[in-house]
Structures are given as C-alpha cells and as structure tokens.
Write a structure and sequence with these properties.
13 helices, 25% strand, Jelly Rolls, 6-stranded antiparallel sheet, single chain
C-alpha cells in the first residue's frame, strides 16, 4: 500500500512519486492540451511489459461503442506488447452519458475486473450534473480494484471546433478536467490534432463543408468519425501512451475525499422486481435471454442491457411504488414525443410532480429518465400514469438509484 512520505521531502515527492501521494493537480480546466499525464498509468504498463493478462475496458457513447478507435487501440496494444494477453470489455452505449454510466458501470464493466479503463464522455455531456456524475465513476472503479488505471479520452464534435481552435476546453470538458486534477487522472485530447489539420486545410470536418479533393474527410455527420478520423484518434492515443509508458509509481490508487457533494459514487441499477406494480401491468417480451458479456453492446444492442426485464401498461391510473435509498431516482423507459406520456410522481407523501417522458429526438426511444434530485435518505416513490397518447404504452425497466 502506498504511504505518505515525510513533509521534509513532500515538495520533491510530488514530482518524483505523484501516484504515491495521489497528488492533486492544478492544470487549468478552461484550457486543453493533447496530453495531461498527471499520475500516469504505471500499473497498466507494468502488466503489459511483464507479458501478463491485461483487460482493457471502455465506457462512453457511440463514438467508442462502434467506433474504430477502440478496435485500433487494441490492435496497436497487441502489436506493441506481443507477450501480453490483451482482451477488451466494450461497455460503451450510444447516446448515453456519465449519469447513466455511473449507474451501470459495476454491472457492465467492473464485473469483468478491467486493468485499464478508458472513459469517453465529453461529446455525450461529460459535464452532466456539473461533473458529479463523471466523478462518481472513479471511486467505483478503484473500490472494485485499486490497481485499475483510468484515462479520460476527449473526442470532438463540430460544435466544439471554435473552443478547441483557441486552446479552450469545451462546455462539458470544464467539468471533467477538475475531476482529472483531483484524482490524478490522465487525459488525452483527440480534438486538437483534428483542428490542427482543419486549420492546415488538410481535413474536412463534415462531408460537404468544403471541397474534399486530397483532404481527409473526418465525418459524415459532424460527430462520428469515418475510418480516417479514427486513424487520427488512434495516432494521438498511441503517441500519448508511448510518451508516458515509463512514467509514474505503481501501486494501489487511493481514493481522496470527493471533489463535490453528492457525486454518483453509490449509483446502481435496481431490478424492476424491487417495485410493487398495480394490477394492469404486463411483462414485456424482450427476446431471448442473453447474458451481459465482454462485448455487451455489439452483441446485445442497447435494449436488453437497458431494461433487462420490463413491464408495460396501456391503462391510465396504473402505478408502481418503489422504496429506495439515495438522492436521485431514474427510470429506464420508452420515451415518446412531447406530451405523449405523462406521469405523476409522489415521494414520501410530499407534493405531486408531473413529468413528461419526452424523447430527445421526438421519436420513440428506449432510454433513461431521471427525476428531480431530493435530499439523501430512505424514500418511497409512487409513479402513476396520467396521460397516454393513442397507440402508445408506458414501458418501465430497471431503476437508476443514485447515492454516495
């Protein structure tokens, strides 16, 4: 176990043995750099160099789930460290952010005990809940295995170009970088290289933005890179990892006091069977039983891992009640166009609140929905269906319970 060193050498120790002290860093959260090493990834590189079994985990959104940078990073690691037995756990799910990731990381990723976790949430609102959701991932990872290393990966979407062009961090990133500073997490910025090539007129960010002759076409939609874009991501990752492969002190990572109050460190998925449903709910057929596995999103889509089991009703006035502990309750549900589904929520016999289960796209979405935050403690919440458009259903799956 790492121990604190005497105060007489504290100043020098911060620079010589940063992980030994879990030193907090003072990088400017409002600016961005390609690589901020902080405490580094020494445990990861030690296992690679020793030729041991190494499991690499990924959590984030669609850029990581189906994105080639993930596959290309594994391919490079296998070629660079051929003696190691390198496998991966793909726990990224498209269109999801760290608030959902904090609830499911134990089930979908940590149960596989990864040695290394790449977290990619900037495009998918890494600043959700002012960074408290993202921060909640870190203690969960280190409680599961204190030797697991963590790296924040910053991908880019078109709306981020102006900020990154000026060396500024993005709106979501300014809430992620303080977490990286506090916990000593390495962060790697993919966007700066993309913007550099754009400024040099060697790249078209979104197909159709400008003539593409002899240029790299980065994406079709302004967010999801084509293979050439993923090659850029891989190259930035590779040179960053090579730059720090001999940096840092191995040993368990210590968990400091939280940076903020009510971080999502106790977030979890709660099975639907924990709720008591009224009479006119039916079980939903979600297809064949498929266990969550090392490639959960590629082989299970998002539906099975989202709901696990689900119930549905088409009858107004039907309800369910759940007892839970924490400060925030979420639902996995089918979301529809605004006004199609409304629920009345009463917690602890308090005043009722009306929620519209509207999707972000205006179309049917299998998604998650968080209610308003309340005081931490033991609660009883009743949810009643009060409005339902013709032909629609209220479908509920597992619950998202956030505690710290």
């Amino acid at each position: 176990m790492k121990q604190l060193i005497p105060l007489s050498i504290l100043f020098f120790g911060i620079f010589l043995f940063p992980k030994l002290l879990n030193a907090q860093y003072i990088y400017n959260p409002k600016t961005t750099e390609e690589l901020r090493t902080r405490s580094g990834l020494p445990n990861f590189f030690k296992k690679l160099k020793e030729g041991k079994d190494v499991k690499v985990g990924y959590i984030g959104g669609s850029i990581t789930n189906g994105g080639l940078w993930r596959a290309k990073s594994i391919e490079w690691l296998k070629n660079e460290y051929p003696k190691a037995n390198i496998t991966q756990v793909n726990a990224a799910i498209g269109g999801t952010g760290p608030e959902y990731g904090a609830c499911r990381i134990q089930n979908h990723l940590l149960n596989h005990n990864p040695d290394m976790v790449f977290i990619e949430y900037r495009v998918n609102n890494g600043g959700a809940y002012k960074g408290r959701a993202l921060e909640g991932l870190i203690p969960q990872i280190w409680k599961n295995n204190p030797n697991t290393e963590i790296c924040f990966i910053y991908t880019i979407s078109k709306g981020m170009i102006p900020d990154i062009s000026e060396g500024h961090q993005t709106n979501a990133g300014v809430n992620m970088e303080p977490v990286a500073n506090h916990y000593g997490i390495t962060s790697i910025e993919f966007g700066l290289e993309v913007v550099k090539l754009l400024k040099e007129d060697k790249l078209v960010f979104k197909k159709g933005d400008s003539p593409a002759k002899s240029k790299i076409i980065f994406s079709n939609d302004g967010t999801h890179p084509l293979e050439a874009g993923h090659n850029i991501y891989r190259d930035v990752l590779v040179r960053s990892l090579k730059a720090i492969e001999n940096y840092g002190t191995t040993g368990p990572n210590l968990i400091p006091k939280p940076l903020k109050k009510n971080i999502f460190s106790g977030a979890s998925l709660v099975p639907i069977k924990k709720a008591k449903f009224s009479s006119k709910w039916k079980d939903v057929d979600l297809g064949d039983e498929v266990a969550i596995n090392d490639d959960l999103t590629d082989k299970n889509g998002g539906i099975k891992s989202l709901f696990v089991k689900a119930k549905k009703t088409e009858t107004l006035g039907e309800s369910f009640t759940i007892k839970w502990d924490g400060f925030l309750l979420g639902l996995t549900a089918l979301l529809e166009e605004k006004g199609d589904i409304q629920i009345e929520v009463i917690t602890d016999e308090g005043p009722s609140k009306i929620y519209d289960l509207k999707s972000r796209t205006g179309k049917t979405q299998s998604k998650y929905y968080f209610l308003n935050e309340i005081g931490a403690g033991s609660h009883t919440t009743t949810v009643k269906l009060i409005k339902l458009a013709p032909g629609k259903i209220l479908q509920i799956g597992q619950f998202l319970v956030v505690d710290n």
